[in-house]
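User: I'm writing a tutorial on reading structure tokens. Could you give me a worked example: one chain, its sequence, then its tokens, then a sentence or two explaining what the tokens reveal?
Assistant: Sure. Here is the example chain.
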Amino acid sequence: MSSEANVNTQANVVSEINMSKINDKKVTKTIVTSPNIYKPVGPYSQAILADKTLYISGVLGLDPQAQLVCGGAEGQARQALENLKHVLEAGGSSLEAVVKTTILLNNIDDFQAVNQIYAQYFTKNYPARACYQVAKLPLGAAVEIEAIALCGDLVVAEAGPCPCARI
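And here are its predicted structure tokens:
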């Protein structure tokens, strides 16, 4: 066998071994749906569980019949957080396991009112968060909230300054 043919054969064997290792590391994508909230208003899933991370689509302040609740931004924020809680539970998670939220507001002047409602749901070990004013939300909503959460046995730890910053 020529040295070139031998190198090609070795490369094919290494490639097959590497592909075998990749295929052994299967990742599960699970579609999560809560029957306790409205059906999605577009072509998306309520949430996706990828291994132990749950990605929740933006939830609105809609009742189970997909109607905006009364009470403006405050009422909608409360309903959106209730809807979020239902989706988290359907995915095997909880508010405590949320690591990141994004709040979209139709009017940034509603920030304080929404923040007060938010603080009733997230009372300690707060998730990271971003909040933006947007030009328009689906169905004329005042608030939309999306989240990322962990699933499994949750351990909450606190860290001080980054250890790598110490000299």
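What the tokens reveal: The first strand starts at residue 29 and ends at 32. The radius of gyration is 22 Å.
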